From TrEMBL, chain A:
Keyword field: Cell membrane, Membrane, Transmembrane, Transmembrane helix, Transport
Lineage: Bacteria, Pseudomonadati, Pseudomonadota, Alphaproteobacteria, Hyphomicrobiales
Coiled coil region boundaries: none
GO molecular function, one term: biotin transmembrane transporter activity
Name by which UniProt lists this protein: Biotin transporter
From TrEMBL, chain B:
Source species: Xanthobacter tagetidis
Family, similarity comment: Belongs to the CbiQ family.
Membrane found in the keyword field: yes
Listed transmembrane segments: 12-32, 38-55, 62-82, 88-107
InterPro entries reported for this sequence: ABC/ECF_trnsptr_transmembrane
Main location: membrane
Protein known as: Energy-coupling factor transporter transmembrane protein EcfT
GO CC terms, sorted: plasma membrane
Compartments where found: Membrane
Origin superkingdom: Bacteria
Lineage per the UniProt record: Bacteria, Pseudomonadati, Pseudomonadota, Alphaproteobacteria, Hyphomicrobiales
């Protein structure tokens, strides 16, 4: 791996962490569920760095959080995350960034629409797919109710996918395109 | 910053990180099949002992997990309706005990000790190209980049606010991201210039 890729991954991981420091927004639309900017960073990692480096950046972020750095939204961190009901979403971020980065350059749509669809499929679909079964199992509430509980976050996540697509296409215009993954 | 290591001199702090991780794994396996809320309450009480021993800082540490409370409430209500109140209580107690037990390991282990211990777990990944030295550098870079990025964003936001009463527009965010990524490439060049990659056998023309 090139040093440049390594440092870009570290920077993206730090950006996801820095986004966790942004105070959570409380959307009335989502029944008051806290909308953090963190998953926006996950979508951006895939869109800006591509599948492999993007997933690597998110994995690095997860590793640093598990080491104990309080970078998860609300200043949380440490091994406790792995044992909580949201562990599936947390680890699903890695797969989500990979799929987002994989799809974005391959979809036969315009740059902005491709980025949005990729962020929705990877950053929402894949992340929920990993998160809902774990939530259901850890909380013992079953898949259906876990899915229902997750749906609360859907409006906010759709907004974030849109923001990630707009940001990524603007950034990629100003910064030279990353090598294809 | 909250979270992470809590400097103190307890028996837990003196245990080697690997032993604590193994204990955490065993403890979690023991907690998972428990269904009796009384046993789980006992387990939670045991986990809370070290927090109590840490005094006020231990209590402050517990509040770090406050974001979990609404979620636990939802889980408890759903389960109490679908099954029995006892099952709901058991679930909530089990999650609390497991999360707080894992956090005991985190608060009593310094980041570099934890890294060394987790490095042993991650060693098999070396086969797919995970170099422990590069991982250590990457972790150090992440920890250093976070405050740098936060400061850089604040500077940009202030510059915007000084000129406009409106909220920062998308272009401001995009410029921040592009600038951050360009900065990363400069750091990479600086590392290479100092011979960082020369330790690896890299084919150069």
């Amino acid at each position: 791996m090139e040093t440049r890729t390594l440092v870009r991954m570290a920077l993206m991981a730090a950006l996801i962490g820095a986004l966790g420091l942004v105070p959570p927004l409380f959307l009335p639309l989502a029944a008051g569920a806290p909308i953090t900017a963190q998953s926006l960073g996950v979508m951006l990692a895939g869109l800006l760095l591509g599948a492999r480096a993007g997933a690597g950046a998110v994995a690095l972020f997860c590793f640093v959080v598990l080491l104990g750095a309080p970078l998860l939204a609300g200043g949380r961190g440490g091994l406790g995350i792995l044992f909580g009901p949201t562990a599936g979403y947390f680890l699903g971020y890695i797969a989500g960034a990979y799929v987002t980065g994989l799809l974005a350059p391959r979809l036969p749509l315009g740059a902005l629409v491709s980025a949005f669809v990729a962020a929705v499929i990877g950053g929402i679909g894949v992340v929920y797919l990993c998160g809902i079964p774990v939530l259901g199992a850890v909380a013992g509430i079953g898949l259906q109710k876990a899915a229902l509980a997750s749906a609360v976050f859907l409006p906010g996540d759709l907004l974030k996918a849109l923001a990630a697509a707009l940001l990524a296409t603007t950034v990629l215009k100003g910064w030279r395109a990353p090598p294809p993954a | 910053m909250r979270g992470g290591y809590l400097a103190a001199d307890t028996a837990l702090h003196r245990l080697p990180a690997g032993a604590k991780l193994a204990g955490l794994a065993l403890g979690s396996i023991a907690l998972l099949p428990l269904q009796d809320p009384r046993l789980l309450a006992l387990a939670l009480a045991l986990v809370l002992v070290p927090y109590a021993a840490l005094g006020r800082r231990g209590m402050a540490r517990l509040t770090q997990w406050a974001p979990l409370v609404p979620l636990l409430a939802i889980i408890g209500i759903i389960q109490a309706l679908a099954e029995t109140p006892a099952a709901a209580l058991a679930s909530v107690l089990r999650i609390l005990a497991m999360v707080l037990m894992a956090d005991l390991v985190t608060l009593s282990t310094r980041l570099d000790d934890m890294m060394e211990a987790l490095g042993v777990v991650l060693r098999p990944l070396g086969a797919v190209g995970l170099d422990p030295r590069r991982l250590a550098l990457a972790v150090a870079l992440v920890l250093r980049f976070v405050p740098v990025l936060a400061a850089s964003w604040r500077a940009r936001e202030e510059a915007w606010r000084a000129r406009s009463p409106r909220r920062p527009r998308l272009a401001v965010f995009a410029a921040f991201f592009a600038g951050a990524l360009r900065g990363a490439d400069q750091v990479a060049e600086a590392l290479d210039a100092r011979g960082f990659s020369s330790h690896r056998t890299r084919r150069r023309p």
